[in-house]
Structures are given as structure tokens and as C-alpha cells.
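Example (one chain per record):
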Amino acid sequence: MQIFLSLLAGLLWGAAAAALNAAITRALSKKSEKGMMAASLLHLPVDVAALGAVYLARNVLPLRFELTMIAAAVAMSVVTIIAAFSLARR
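Predicted structure:
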């Protein structure tokens, strides 16, 4: 059960971080090319904060750290790819 909860928490947390990145990208890409560059620069702090929160919560939450971290990274990657494809279609 702990493995399942760790994976679920990581996937949800990573998807939330990627959704925030997608919202930032959509908002800033409408303005200009410089907005797109700013969005790319803002992705890194959001990603670092999301993974850093998992790292800092490793001793507080009763989850397996390595599974939660991997699931968060996978979710961030997959949701970011899906968001990029949907943005490119527009």
C-alpha cells in the first residue's frame, strides 16, 4: 500500500507542477517571443521547487522517497510533453 501511495502522490505532485508550467507557458506565449523565453526560464524554478518539496518532505510523510521522486519526475515530463503538443497545435 505504501508503494501505491508513494507512486500516486508523486504522480499527482508532478502533474500539478507540470500544469503550473503549462499555465505559465500559455500565459506568456501569447505576448511575444520574449514571453516564450521568459516561460522557459520560469520552468526551471518551478521544477526545482516541486522536486525540492518532495525531497524536504521525505522524513515527514510516510512515503517511499525514491518512488515518490521518480513518479514526480515522470509525471512532470509526460504532462509537459502533452502540454507542448497541445500548445503547438494552436
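Caption: The chain has a mean pLDDT of 90.
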